[in-house]
Write a structure and sequence with these properties.
The chain is of the alpha/beta class. It has helices spanning 17-23, 25-28, 42-58, 72-86, 102-113, 131-137, 160-169, 230-233, 241-279, 306-315, 335-339, 344-347, 361-380, 383-394; strands at 5-6, 66-69, 93-97, 117-121, 142-146, 173-177, 196-200, 211-215, 283-286, 296-301, 318-319, 350-354. Strand 3, helix 5 (102-113) and strand 4 form a beta-alpha-beta unit.
């Protein structure tokens, strides 16, 4: 097998060995349904209860405020749809941002068809919303603010505590999509004034198909999935015990290793960014320079198409992306990059490289060395680049 370098950790991560080992007994030995009353099911019920404590501890929540779901998209849908329905008597106005994940944006589109009004906040060139614009957008009939904690494409970390404080002062619910943040950066739901929070297991070395929705005690929110009485009558369906156990174990591990991982990933990320910006002409970093996820580097390269880069990188055994994994097959440029103010022709040349603590400096140096060759090759095939050089030479 040739070289393999995985730099798409924002899309998904490898499930760690210790997480897999924690999950295995609940597939074949302790396979009881935790909702059953007999003793054999007790092992599964205890495991779910412990995982709930592990997940809550990572964000300084109470275990009874953690609800297990099928992943981040379900959690986002649940937070928005159920809150909209529960608080419809107060109003039908919701505030979000233009750079949210499509699990939020498409849910907002659905709610608009149901008669809700959505305000989409602009972001600056770094991807941050304006707190002043947020304050000005709040109305008497505003029932919910949903702004992501960290962007999945450009890595910008929003001022969540201040957003939550503003929401709290106006008596408005605050939900944050923390799918990219949970397990990677410190989160405290109390200090950050968060009423609801979404997270997904496979983004921090847990299993796919399991997530959480944190719902602050006292928040009035209805069920999204109806049927049984699972999850304290709020989320029907037989619990995914192995997945939940894996989520809990990954949460516990993340809490123990987070500080060390942040330091290591930040050094690697900054080394990658420095080399790219210094050695590849007409390149730019997307997202905030410092207030960004430790493992995220997102670039745009003028005069080329991002898809061509990905194909050539893949041929070298390098896994990367041009943006969100949920829209990787789309031909349109990233809605996030357009919201940052980039023109279509530049946004098309984007590349997202997301690393982990296991990534090495040697891996990144190899990627940059090869990327320089790829971009030079693609630019020499570009009539736009040729025209640009002729114009530069004339001047």
């Amino acid at each position: 097998m040739g070289k393999f370098i995985y730099l798409d950790h924002a899309a998904t991560t490898q499930t760690s060995e210790e997480v897999v080992n924690a999950m295995l007994p609940f597939f074949s030995e302790k396979y009881g349904n935790p909702s059953a009353f007999y003793g054999f099911a007790g092992e599964a019920e205890k495991a779910v209860s412990y995982a709930r404590k592990q997940a809550a501890a990572l964000i300084h929540a109470n275990p009874e405020e953690i609800y297990f779901t099928g992943g981040g998209s379900e959690s986002d849908n649940w937070a928005l749809k159920a809150a909209a329905e529960a608080y419809a008597d107060k109003g039908k106005h919701i505030i979000t941002s233009k750079i949210e994940h499509h699990a939020i944006l498409h849910t907002c589109e659905y709610l608009q068809k149901k008669g809700y009004e959505i305000t989409y906040l602009d972001v600056d060139s770094d991807g941050k919303i304006s707190l002043e614009e947020l304050e000005a957008a709040i109305r008497e009939d505003t029932i919910l603010i949903s702004v992501m904690m960290a962007n999945n494409e450009v890595g910008t970390i929003e001022e969540v505590a201040k957003i939550g404080k503003t929401a709290r002062e106006h008596g408005v619910l605050f939900h944050t999509d923390a799918v990219q943040a949970y397990g990677h950066i410190p989160v405290d739901v109390e200090e950050m004034n968060i009423d609801m929070l979404s997270a997904s297991g496979h983004k921090f070395h847990g299993p796919k198909g399991v997530g959480i929705l944190y719902i602050k005690k006292g928040v009035k929110i209805r069920s999204l999935i109806h049927g049984g009485a699972q999850e304290r009558n709020r989320r029907a369906g037989t619990l995914n015990v192995p997945g939940i156990v894996g989520f809990g174990k990954a949460s516990e591990t993340a809490g123990k290793t987070m500080e060390e991982n942040i330091k290591k990933e930040t050094v690697l990320r900054d080394h990658l960014i420095k080399r790219v910006l210094e050695e590849i002409p007409y390149s730019r970093l997307n997202g905030h320079k410092t207030d960004r996820l430790p493992g995220n580097a997102n670039f745009c390269f003028r005069f080329i198409e991002g898809e061509s880069m990905l194909i050539l990188l893949e041929q070298l055994g390098i896994c990367a992306s041009s943006g969100s994994a949920c829209t990787s097959g789309a031909l349109d440029p990233s809605h996030v990059l357009l919201a940052l103010g980039l023109p279509h022709e530049i946004a098309h040349g984007s590349l997202r490289l997301t690393l982990s603590a296991e990534t090495t400096k040697e891996d990144l140096d190899f990627v940059v060395d090869e990327l320089k060759k790829i971009i030079e090759r693609l630019r020499h095939m570009s009539p736009l680049y040729e025209d640009f050089l002729k114009k530069e030479n004339k001047e």
